[in-house]
Amino acid sequence: MLDGYHVNGSGTDKKQRIIAVQAALEIIKAAISTPGGAKNVDNELDLVVKHLPKIADAIQEAVKK
């Protein structure tokens, strides 16, 4: 999921952010696809918008360590 995050030891900030957001979307997609996870699609999409940046930030912080 995070393949290519560091290309030869470093990647551009924009590319790293795109990869982190893609990983965050996969996490959210898995959470929504669980039984009961997609009860209210509009509500779930609102939650995606709210939490996507936070999850992507957390992924980027974890990769830095």
Automatic annotation (TrEMBL):
What name does this protein carry?
Answer: Uncharacterized protein
Record the organism.
Pectobacterium brasiliense
